[in-house]
Amino acid sequence: MKSFLRSNFPQLWSYARGAKDRVKIEYYLLRRMSLRHLLPGFSRKEGSWDMILPYQAVRRIEIPSVNYSSIDAMIADLKTAGLAFGEGTFALYLPPETVAKSAFHVLAGQYPPDAGVKIVKMPGGVGVSTYGPGLMRKYVDRHLLLAANLMYAQSVGPRIYDLVELESGGVVWTAYVMRHVEGRSPSAGECESGVAKMRDLEREGLLNTVRASLP
Predict the structure, then answer these.
(1) How far is it, in rounded angstroms, from Cα 211 to Cα 215?
(2) Engineering a disulfide at 159: which of 8, 77, 144, 179 sits with its beta carbon 3.0 to 4.6 angstroms away?
(3) Which residues have a Cβ under 8 Å from the Cβ of 139 and sit 6 or more positions away?
(4) In whole angstroms, what is the distance from residue 181 CA to residue 200 CA?
């Protein structure tokens, strides 16, 4: 039937296909928005920004010519090549120079030259990989990308360029592509100032922390 319409009634087919696309978009928006956004006066409470804003699709990028089925394999390669990296409890960080000179160079031309890569140590894609200790463990999801750039806009954290999935050796790793920050570690006063800003954002309903609330 589709082939018949496309061949014999191309204008009708084009219109029908466009209408179908518009219905899909409107259906998606209706699912993302509640009645209080559609009916004036239904509720005075404003909608949560994380439920209204659309999410960017997550790209999956293959890291060729290597078998990074474990974080240990990545670290071993970096050490052998004499490349700089940072390691924390839950993530491995590669500065821009390391990204450009390692197997991760496939990312270098797709982002600004100051982009570093923070790889979550727990394997799995977005929505599967987790980070954090014990009861505070949390899935890495697309909402975190919006939250991270909100914090950047408030001068609390670095700019996040993208949230991607890296595939190597049959294993998928979740990673943030972020602006590299040079300089010293923040002072105690600067840390306290950053936490205070996070408290303010939480009180305004713009940010939810892993805990129920910040002390």
Answers:
(1) 9
(2) 179
(3) 127, 128, 129, 130
(4) 24
> Where do we find the tokens 């790793």?
173
Determine how many CB atoms are found less than 10 A away from the CB of residue 27.
10
Which tokens belong to 176?
A: 């943030």
Q: What is the pTM of this model?
A: 0.64
Q: Assess contact for 179 and 158: CB atoms under 8 A.
A: yes
Helical packing angle, 188-203 and 143-153, nearest 10°: 120
Distances in Å between the Cα of 67 and the Cα atoms of 2, 64, 73, 95 are 44, 8, 8, 21
What is the chain's length?
A: 215
Which one-letter DSSP state was computed for residue 61? Answer: E
Instruction: Please give the Cα distance from 179 to 103 (Å, whole number).
Output: 19
Residue 136 pLDDT greater than 50, yes or no? no
